[in-house]
Amino acid sequence: MVMRPTEGTLAESASASDRGRGRQSELSRSWRRFKRYRPGLAGTFLILLLILIAIFAPVLAPYSPEKVDTSRMGEAPSWSHPLGFDGIGRDVLSRTIYGTRVALLVGLLSTLISVVIGVAVGA
After folding, report:
1. Under a CB-based contact definition with an 8 Å cutoff, are residues 77 and 83 in contact?
2. In this structure, is residue 103 part of a structural domain?
3. Sequence-ordered list of residues with C-beta below 8 angstroms from that of 81, at least 6 positions apart, any chain
């Protein structure tokens, strides 16, 4: 009868489980440290808020951002239009809400381009 060696020793499997536990504890330590850092939490909250506004822009915007009302050009803010109208007669609040989509897209794409260039130069 020929005995075959096992695929891994008991010590190897124990060290693998220790590594997993160490990684988990490092993640939990990082998360606890991040939760205590108030500016980081505030920034994360604001970015998540902007992402939600961008996703739900059609629901949140009270008027169409492209609709032009020439009779109300440059009109001051009112209860029905909290940010007023621009010089062309478009609702500023609706345009600002839809503008978060473009702003987040520009930020994301510029970050991705920077990462690609950085990885290519650093490699």
Report:
1. yes
2. yes
3. 63, 72, 75, 91, 92, 93
- Name the domain count of the chain: 1
At residue 31, the pLDDT reads: 86
- pLDDT, tens only, 59-96: 999 999 999 998 999 899 999 999 999 999 999 999 99
Reported as a single tens digit per residue, the pLDDT across 5-51 is: 555 555 555 555 555 566 678 888 988 898 898 999 999 999 999 99
The count of C-alpha atoms lying within 13 angstroms of the C-alpha of 1, restricted to the half-sphere facing its C-beta, is 1
Half-sphere exposure of 37 (CA within 13 A, CB side): 10
Q: How far apart are CA 111 and CA 15, in angstroms?
A: 38
Taking the C-alpha atoms of residue 22 and residue 19, their distance in angstroms, rounded to an integer, is: 5
Domain around 31? 13-122
| pTM for the model | 0.68
Is residue 84 situated within a structural domain? yes
Task: Determine, yes or no, domain membership for 4.
Answer: no
For 15, the enclosing helix (H) or strand (E) is helix 10-36
